[in-house]
Amino acid sequence: MISSSSSQRVTLRDIARRLKVTHTTVSRALRNNRQISPALRVKIQVVAAEMGYRPDPMLSALAHYRQSNLKAAIGSELAWINLWPDPKDLRRQREFDLYWKGAFAEAARCGFRLEEFALNAGMTVARLRQIFRTRNIIGLLLPPKPTDAVPAWEGFPWDEFFVVRFGHSLPYPAAHIVASDQMSDGLMAFENIRRHGYRRIGLVTGQFNSKNLVRFAAGYLFGRLSLPEYERLPLLNLSQVSVHEDKKALVAWLKNARPDAILTDLASLRDLLAEAGCRVPQDVALAAMSVLDGNADAGINQNSEEIGRAAVETMVSLINRNERGLPKICREVLVEGRWVDGSTLPPRETLLARSGDGLQNRAVVPSTPRFELRLRS
Q1: What is the pLDDT of residues 359-370, one digit of tens each?
Q2: Overall CATH class of domain 182-301+339-361
Q3: Contact assessment for residue 290 and residue 99, using Cβ atoms and an 8 Å cutoff
């Protein structure tokens, strides 16, 4: 056995000579290429480990450089599997539409064609499997879905495909994940709202049981740990079942919590605030966890197009290593968002100056809101 400290590097040809195979066979076996039988793959990998083989990082980098600078020809296809009851609703979400655009562009750059397939009442899993085999589709991208219902994937041959999912809304299949860094984004939003001079920052959501929202909320909750107790407002979780009940809950929360700013994932919240007689930003400032879909121009831009690109990059890395199927340990690639200033959350000092109150009226604990809360029938 050659020690790893030896000055002479073990090469693919050294391994090939010992096993009396070609160096191409060794290279493919070490990359888990299915052109090599499982038994021979294992034998080559064991011998390579015994001989102390390590890939040359400089040669690997050179190969990657050469490959990335070649104009890729469109070859195999990748599938974007749409799990929404009405497939058009997925791309009506601007965040998810940018997932698609980023993934489509990166797939084309890497030599793949990305095509959308809808899995709903009109398409069974068995039929989808048949289409994938016929079309030589090797990779599956699974974008977010709107409900907790899991498709009937029984019997689907995951081990034939390279699989990447977006976000945490898909509990199955347990594939590698590419997502926005929601916990960091929640903390970023909280810190920027504080930076703008707001002190009583509330969180209003309509899906607190959502796995995505839990992560956003975790960042917000972590941020407020440093606050005095009287500035830690109760969270408001609206049912989104009855508009009247949501208005009633919002009015009660506004009277009790007296926020000067709100962070939310609800695009409908701005209209609910208006129904309650609460003006944005004059009476309460508003920031969205998604400035694309949240009906507020201040908040988090999740860099969704980059998330789409990262998903395909992850897919390509799986293809290069021939890692098909569902992994024993899932990896997460998190893409950081960025804060966006906007008119729904101006600096507190500027807002007070515009209202004519003057800075002398700023209080650490605000009095009862000056706007008239009302509940319309």
Answers
A1: 333 433 444 455
A2: alpha beta
A3: no
